[in-house]
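Problem 3 from the worked examples.
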Amino acid sequence: MLWRRLLVPLLASAIVLAAAPSTAHADTGFPSVGGNWDAPGPYATAVDVGPVTTLYYPRDIAQSPRRHPVIVWGNGTFAFPVVYRPLLLHWASHGFIVAAANTPVSNLGVSMRAGIDLLAHRDADPNSVFHDHVDLDRVGASGHSQGGAAAIVVGDDPRVDTIVPIQPGPLADVDHVHGPMLALAGQNDSIVWPILVKGFYDDADHIPAIYGEVRNADHFTVVGDPGPFDGPTTAWFRFQLMDDEEARGEFFGSGCRICADTGTWSDVRRNPLALQVPGLAP
């Protein structure tokens, strides 16, 4: 859209500042994992299966001295959270509260938004283990296939700070997303071709956006053992939602590590606004 393209240079500075984690409510107390994003995190995990949402979270959250960021999740077509259980538990082990929509048709994002509402209620409930432990100011959205499109759809929610659509289906409009995006494709995906994911990336010229194409991955690589998807998604959310500076260099600056890792990635692209996000301090 021409009007938006003309506004990009004027808004670039503000957007780049928005791409960096906020320091107004920064919590630097999350344990470092020393860059081992694909290894289990320091938290034991628990699962709470509800009628609309399944929660994956740090088991001892009631004793936690801090509030924990949220990731809302959307499933692929006809899939349920249990299909992605290893990935969702992996995020929970790193300190995130994952609210996974139970619906197998997540494209509208209604159940994903309901996950945020549920956690707001649990946070306010003095009888809940989540009471005063949910960081509702730090929310990310992710999902696979149809759920990846749903992550883009809920990216227009003012409560959602960043999105990671994984092999997203076509029924979404990235023009309404307001936070940074890491869009992931599979090199050998014959269901959601990489060119379709690149289309979302190309259209996301109003936000910092990165496109990553996982070498040799097909559409179902993320199902079950998430393999090459767990590390980069964890690093992205730890940087965006936890202020984990160790994760910054994975994506930003001249030393961008995923850009140099041709063993894992068959294609990595960063748009001009992503290129303006500072890398690690020397």
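Problem 4, a separate protein:
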Amino acid sequence: MLSALLVMTGIAIVLGAALGYAAIRFKVEGDPLVGKIDAILPQTQCGQCGYPGCKPYAEAIARGEAGINQCPPGGEEGIRKLADLLGREFKPLSEEHGIEKPRSVAVIDEQTCIGCTLCIQACPVDAIVGAAKQMHTVVDKLCTGCELCVAPCPVDCISMVPVAETVQTWKWKYPVIEIRKAA
């Protein structure tokens, strides 16, 4: 009886290890609908929707716990895409979550910056670089324009500057595809 129990325990350990390895080796993807919703969201990670980032908001939408009109950075275009994807009725942006604004990036007045690092801690995408008691700067290609760095700054040295619409910045969340003429 004891030997049968030991054999079963050994089998359980081997199966558990195999399943654990498989879960790590072959990453199991979540709900494909969440991925499609998340792909439509602007990836600003700003939290204006009431969720800590775009993926948690996408998960809440997929579960039916959140409206499709809670993302100011995604704006009307994002709401329309979500409505089309989910077969829901278009609703205007929820006023309680903010207003749609043009794309912008944070700019730090480096002469005024005291190097407190509060903006670095607030940035959800690590777009601000600097060290304690040293000036900070924003890597504009990484900045999503979420504005989360503005409020914690004790010297008000951060401003949001609208990004001029050019071929490179239009539809800023999508890569620009270069088309070349055949020689």
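Solution to problem 4. The chain has a mean pLDDT of 84. The helical segments are 2-25, 32-40, 54-63, 75-86, 118-122.
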